[in-house]
Specification:
Helix content: 25-40%
CATH class of the largest domain: Alpha Beta
CATH topology of the largest domain: TIM Barrel
Largest sheet: 9 strands, mixed
Number of strands: 21
Number of domains: 2
Bound molecules: ligand LLP
Strand content: 25-35%
Shape: elongated
């Protein structure tokens, strides 16, 4: 899904679907996350079409964007959810997904979170260590229930992506690597309050080459055969998320169909239900971060800065992963300049782009930072006493507030003298 189809210029003013971004900034203020419902639905449709011939359940990975209205949009299309904490479980349930369509993941679950997941009747809890397997068994036994579990396998495949978001390498903390599997199966056989229902993997995020999925899936299928040989009846294989999107038109993402073409023939013969956990693919290009230019300045070398009212507190990805985000002027200009677009936070890493050709917009005008739907609002913070922005969802010619802007009172609400 390209953001250009829903974020487009109408009479030289950048718009989301049929709503011009100027009007949204005037109505709701800036900084503002603007999300297109059409884009969410189109991405979901594209994903489902690609994997249509495979019996599967798509569980939206809510960590990418946990706004209740975003989750609900996917839940209404029939998706389940992948959650990574008690807080995300709470969000998913409140967005209207039933427990039976929720996968509870996370490398370090506390007892209270395990109990909450069991009470919510989740489809399965992922297990990432033998100690965790024992903990889930203990909590389930206390409740007199049997916990459905997925073993997260670490396939030791190092997918090429930013090192902070590769997870399928056995030097990373995730999953149980092949050397630990025999012990895991033995332990599983000896515990009464857990039942193995799924084998799972997630090899990282923003992965362009389907071959990494193929290599990891082959490992998963080997483990599946082993599990069957040991008498376990495993009904699900979970391939995880990680499917790529285009942030930079010069580096277009591999189409989702290429992943499907490789994975479907590999997985279909297993005759099980396949689970996918896409996050970024569904939401990244559905939102922009709308911001106003506060000041423009030049330093002694002639270098130009556009200082805008959004910062790394609203989109930390450039600072954390050196990621590329397109920055567009809401009003088109004939002239362009080379500038750094930066925020008001007291860190040199507080930038959206450096030495980029941008429209020569004036102070007071609006800029849109594209591809701000995944890992943007969810990773926002109050650093420097910043207030989290409002969020708006556009549907055709209508816009709806889906999260209020934070207030100064909320900043100190939990503190006690
Ligand atoms: N499943 C599991 C177990 C995960 O850990 C993740 C992401 C996903 C699914 C969804 O992955 P996706 O389809 O969104 O790639 N903050 C980073 C990304 C961190 C991803 C963490 N796990 C970023 O902004 O690039």
């Amino acid at each position: 899904m390209s953001e250009r189809t829903v974020f487009h210029y109408i009479d030289d003013v950048l718009s989301c679907e049929d709503v011009c971004l100027d009007d949204l900034a005037n109505a709701y203020g800036t900084p503002l996350y603007v999300t297109s419902k059409k884009s969410l639905l189109e991405s979901a449709g594209e994903f489902e079409k690609a994997f249509a011939s495979l019996p599967h359940l798509t569980c939206y990975s809510v960590k990418a964007n946990f706004n209740l209205s975003v989750i609900r949009t996917f839940v209404e299309t029939g998706f389940g959810c992948d959650v990574n904490s008690g807080g995300e479980l709470f969000r998913a349930l409140n967005a209207g997904v039933s427990g039976g369509k929720i996968i509870f993941a996370g490398v370090g679950k506390r007892d209270d979170e395990i109990a909450y997941a069991l009470d919510s009747g989740v489809l399965m809890l992922k297990v990432e260590s033998l100690s965790e397997l024992r903990a889930i068994d203990r909590v389930a036994a206390d409740k007199g229930v049997v916990a459905p579990i997925a073993l997260r396998i670490n396939p030791n495949v190092t997918a090429e992506t930013h090192p902070y978001i590769t997870t399928g390498d056995s030097k990373e903390k995730f999953g149980i690597d092949q050397t630990g599997l025999e012990e895991a199966f033995t332990l599983l056989g000896s515990l009464d309050s857990v039942r193995l229902v799924c084998l799972d993997m997630h090899i990282g995020s923003q992965i362009f080459d389907p071959e990494y999925y193929v290599a990891a899936t082959e490992v998963l299928l080997d483990v599946f055969e082993t599990a069957k040989g040991l008498g376990f009846s495993v009904g699900y294989l979970d391939i995880g998320g990680g499917f790529p999107v285009t942030y930079d038109a010069r580096k277009p993402a591999t189409p989702i169909t290429h992943f499907a073409e490789k994975l479907i023939p590999l997985l279909a013969p297993a005759g099980v239900m396949v689970i996918f956990e896409p996050g970024r693919f569904l939401v990244a290009n559905a939102s922009v971060l709308l911001s106003r230019i506060l000041y423009k300045k030049r330093n002694h070398t002639g270098k130009r800065f556009f200082i805008i009212d959004a910062g790394m507190t609203e989109l930390i990805r450039p600072a954390l992963y050196q990621s590329h985000h397109e920055v567009l002027s809401v009003h088109r200009h004939e002239d362009s300049v080379i500038a750094d677009v930066v925020g008001p936070v007291c860190e040199s890493s507080d930038f959206f782009c450096r030495q980029r050709v941008v429209d020569d917009a004036d102070e007071g005008e609006l800029l849109a930072v594209l591809s701000s739907g995944a890992y943007a609002a969810v990773m926002s913070s109050n650093y420097n006493g910043r207030l989290r922005p409002a969020e708006v969802m556009v549907d055709g010619s209508k816009a709806r507030l889906i999260r209020r802007r934070e207030s100064y009172d909320q900043l100190i609400a939990n503190e006690l003298f």
